[in-house]
Amino acid sequence: MPQPPITIPEHELVERFVRATGPGGQNVNKVATAVELRFDIANSPSLPEPVRERLLARRDRRVTGDGVLVLNAQRFRTQERNRQDARERLAHFIETGLHAPKKRVATRPTRASKQRRLDAKRERSNIKRGRGSGGRDWD
Hints:
Elements: E1 13-18, H1 26-30, E2 34-40, H2 49-57, E3 68-73, H3 79-98, H4 111-131
Antiparallel strand pairs: 1-2, 2-3
Helix pairs in contact: 2-3
Protein name: Alternative ribosome rescue aminoacyl-tRNA hydrolase ArfB
EC number: 3.1.1.29
Pfam families: RF-1
């Protein structure tokens, strides 16, 4: 059964406009085009509990210890395009938490694969044993 799409209200997003880094001449020094978007995953009423848990469990450097996602967008020259980029990245991040990962089914190696592994190890051992001088006298 498909899950209804998650919509996040404006008041849950905190945007801050800062000056971008990198090349750009005088424009970079004057105009605050970069966007820092913050979204509090841990305290958001918009997220279902399983999605919140999956997002917080991800080992992502953009999520602070308090459960706040911080996205920096400065790829584009205009503030509006960077805002749009940050929101798209937020939507993509939340989308990754919508799908529960499949449980891994543990399997065992077959007898033939174990035998092939041991044969390969034995063959390698013989090759390496043949390399040493082993006290031979070539004179």
